[in-house]
Amino acid sequence: GEVCTMINKKYSEFLPSMQSAEELVAQVERLAGSIDVLRARIESEVQRDLNVAVAEFTELKQQLERDTLVLSILKKLQEFDTAIKEYNAALLEKKYVVAAQQLEKVIMPSQAHARMGFELKILKALGTELTVQTQNMLYHLGEEWQRLVVWKLPPSKASSSLESVLASELHLCTVPSEEEIAGPPVASVLQAFAVLGELHTKLKAFGHLLLKHILKPLVSYSSLWPLVEEQSEVVVLRFKSEEPTLDNTSPVEVFEKIKQILEFLHKYLLNVPLECVDDKKECKVILSELLGDMIWEELSDCLIQNCLVNSIPTNSSKLEQYIEVIKSTEEFEKALKNMQFLKGDTTNLLKYARNVNSHFANKKCQDVIVAARKLMTSEIHNTVKISPDSSVVLPRLPDPGAGDHLEMEKTSKVLHNEIVILENESKLSQHTFSLPTCRISSSVEELMDLAYQTLLEATASTDQCCIQLFYSVRNIFQLFYDVVPTYHRENLQKLPQLAAIHHNNCMYIAHHLLTLGHQFRYRLTSILCDGTATFVDMVPGFRRLGMECFLAQMRVQKGEILERLSSARNFSNMDDEENYCAANKAIRQVLHQLKRLGKVWQDVLPVNVYCKAMGTLLNTALTEIVTRITALEDISAKDADRLYSLCRTMVEEGPQVFTPLPEEDKNKKYQEEVPLYVQKWMTFKELMIILQANLQEIVDQWADGKGPLAAEFSPIEVKSLIRALFQNTERRAAALAKIK
């Protein structure tokens, strides 16, 4: 109870103090609100004053920049004015380097202001003035250059002949310039060009003229020599014409001439130490090196194509002598490097000279293919006669290796000791594997000789060259296979003689290809001695090429024979005069065609091929006549007589078309052998017998199917002829009954 009383007492004492604290808090809060309002008002006032201050600062800064720029421009204007005055004074005194340097001083500031984006009219005016003065300076430099370096050239329309080249001259002034610059008189002009950045352009134009009128003519004309004449105020470079002391294709003299020209230029024009500004850095310019960079590539190509290429030996025996050319090329490049025309490592010129073996092989292969193609596109009808006794004039080849020889000796000794006799008593003819007598194109004979000579060249060459030459020979024959049938297609189709010659050409090539590789296999590089050095794989293709061409011509001739016989009105109703005349004309035309072919193929085709070809064509005519006559359903007695007369013409005159040889007395043998080459010859003669025989004679010729008539005609064909020739009687019926 006491505790509660005490608590209540303390609470009653504390209550008034709590009420006064609440009032204090309220007052504090009111004070804080007033402070916030005052703070916002102060901050607003300060910010306004700060903005005003910043604006004033920015304006003052811009004013300062404008004033600074104006001062800078005024300073540059003063510098520009001073530089232009000094430039004009130097130009009047022909102190070109000083004048160029003064212009260079004002070029950079003007460009700097332009890059800053200021478009002041005065700067534009200054830029225009600077351009005018620069062009004026370049004009005066150009005039001075043309006075110091004078080209005297023939008219531009003049032909580039030796006479016009001899009229070309280069004059260089030797009077010292007014500026104290080391080197020739032209040194100040070149230095001024360098300062203005125009040296490269001017030197490039000079290099172009130098190549066109001096250097390239020296390479092209072996009789030209440079001639230097020193006069009072100029030194003159011109040409003189002399007979070359060496071979036209020798590079030794050419290198000497070019070296003389460059020594002349180095002494009187290019030996000038120049300075130029490149990316704000001063650098030294070596004129010889600069000009060399401009002209060397084109000059080097010219020397290779017009000098070194022609100097490559055409014979492997001369390859060792080419060391002199390589040495001369090395000395030439060394001299150019000493004069600073060249820099760096070995150039393409020396690399080309050192790679002579490869170039020899490439040139030889190219020459071989070019010569072969020329032969292939020449006329086919120019022919030469070959016989079993004739052969290509082969180069004398060394015997195979000694090892083979010793092995053969050992074998022969063994056989001798054992007394073994293997020799056959009956020997083959010496012409067993020879080509028969015929005519081939003279170009093909030359082509084969080219192949043999190229292979002989391969035997004396390096391994790589040997391989290239071997495959070049293969390419010759592949080229023939592809080119000749296409190039001469029209003539081969139209002219039977050319088709025959082409046939012989292909057989001639195929004949040599059989043994061509074997003849050289022991002398070629070891890489080719494992069986790859062969041409045998090309033999079937050439035989097929010749046969296809000739067979195509045979088909054309067969077609013409059948076309002519088609106008014979099927040999029917020969009692009609008009029909008989048509048939007789057709027979005459066929015989004329065969005689013409016999003449154009005479002494061209081998005799056996000639006889087979003429026999095939004559057989075509006889077969067609037999077919037409046996198909007739009615043959009167007069018809039979006239048909017999037509057939007799073919039998009597047909063999006369066989004239394979120009000597008439030698052709009789082949005319008598016509039945061997004309398959239907006996059939035709049996038909003639029927046309003139009576029923009994026909029955006798049949001989119960064992007679000559039965050997040529079938029972149906004989019965058909009997019904056509004879009326329907008992005798005819009896005769027909015996034909079976």
TrEMBL record:
<keyword id="KW-0963">Cytoplasm</keyword>
<dbReference type="GO" id="GO:0005819">
    <property type="term" value="C:spindle"/>
</dbReference>
<comment type="subunit">
    <text>Interacts with NBAS and KNTC1/ROD; the interactions are mutually exclusive and indicative for its association in two different vesicle tethering complexes. Component of the RZZ complex composed of KNTC1/ROD, ZW10 and ZWILCH. Component of the NRZ complex composed of NBAS, ZW10 and RINT1/TIP20L; NRZ associates with SNAREs STX18, USE1L, BNIP1/SEC20L and SEC22B (the assembly has been described as syntaxin 18 complex). Interacts directly with RINT1/TIP20L bound to BNIP1/SEC20L. Interacts with C19orf25 and ZWINT. Interacts with ZFYVE1.</text>
</comment>
<keyword id="KW-0132">Cell division</keyword>
<dbReference type="GO" id="GO:0005789">
    <property type="term" value="C:endoplasmic reticulum membrane"/>
</dbReference>
<keyword id="KW-0597">Phosphoprotein</keyword>
<keyword id="KW-0472">Membrane</keyword>
<keyword id="KW-0813">Transport</keyword>
<dbReference type="Pfam" id="PF20666">
    <property type="entry name" value="ZW10_C"/>
</dbReference>
<keyword id="KW-0256">Endoplasmic reticulum</keyword>
<dbReference type="InterPro" id="IPR055148">
    <property type="entry name" value="ZW10_C_2"/>
</dbReference>
<dbReference type="InterPro" id="IPR048343">
    <property type="entry name" value="ZW10_C"/>
</dbReference>
<dbReference type="InterPro" id="IPR009361">
    <property type="entry name" value="Zw10_N"/>
</dbReference>
<feature type="domain" description="Centromere/kinetochore protein zw10 N-terminal">
    <location>
        <begin position="2"/>
        <end position="84"/>
    </location>
</feature>
<feature type="domain" description="ZW10 C-terminal helical">
    <location>
        <begin position="585"/>
        <end position="739"/>
    </location>
</feature>
<keyword id="KW-0131">Cell cycle</keyword>
<dbReference type="InterPro" id="IPR046362">
    <property type="entry name" value="Zw10/DSL1_C_sf"/>
</dbReference>
<comment type="similarity">
    <text>Belongs to the ZW10 family.</text>
</comment>
<keyword id="KW-0995">Kinetochore</keyword>
<dbReference type="InterPro" id="IPR048344">
    <property type="entry name" value="Zw10_middle"/>
</dbReference>
<dbReference type="Pfam" id="PF06248">
    <property type="entry name" value="Zw10_N"/>
</dbReference>
<keyword id="KW-0206">Cytoskeleton</keyword>
<feature type="domain" description="Centromere/kinetochore protein zw10 middle">
    <location>
        <begin position="141"/>
        <end position="376"/>
    </location>
</feature>
<dbReference type="GO" id="GO:0005634">
    <property type="term" value="C:nucleus"/>
</dbReference>
<feature type="domain" description="Centromere/kinetochore protein zw10 C-terminal">
    <location>
        <begin position="433"/>
        <end position="563"/>
    </location>
</feature>
<feature type="coiled-coil region">
    <location>
        <begin position="21"/>
        <end position="67"/>
    </location>
</feature>
<dbReference type="GO" id="GO:0051301">
    <property type="term" value="P:cell division"/>
</dbReference>
<dbReference type="GO" id="GO:0006888">
    <property type="term" value="P:endoplasmic reticulum to Golgi vesicle-mediated transport"/>
</dbReference>
<keyword id="KW-0007">Acetylation</keyword>
<keyword id="KW-0158">Chromosome</keyword>
<keyword id="KW-0175">Coiled coil</keyword>
<dbReference type="Pfam" id="PF22766">
    <property type="entry name" value="ZW10_C2"/>
</dbReference>
<keyword id="KW-0931">ER-Golgi transport</keyword>
<dbReference type="GO" id="GO:1990423">
    <property type="term" value="C:RZZ complex"/>
</dbReference>
<keyword id="KW-0653">Protein transport</keyword>
<dbReference type="GO" id="GO:0007094">
    <property type="term" value="P:mitotic spindle assembly checkpoint signaling"/>
</dbReference>
<keyword id="KW-0498">Mitosis</keyword>
<dbReference type="Pfam" id="PF20665">
    <property type="entry name" value="Zw10_middle"/>
</dbReference>
<dbReference type="GO" id="GO:0015031">
    <property type="term" value="P:protein transport"/>
</dbReference>
<keyword id="KW-0137">Centromere</keyword>
<protein>
    <recommendedName>
        <fullName>Centromere/kinetochore protein zw10 homolog</fullName>
    </recommendedName>
</protein>
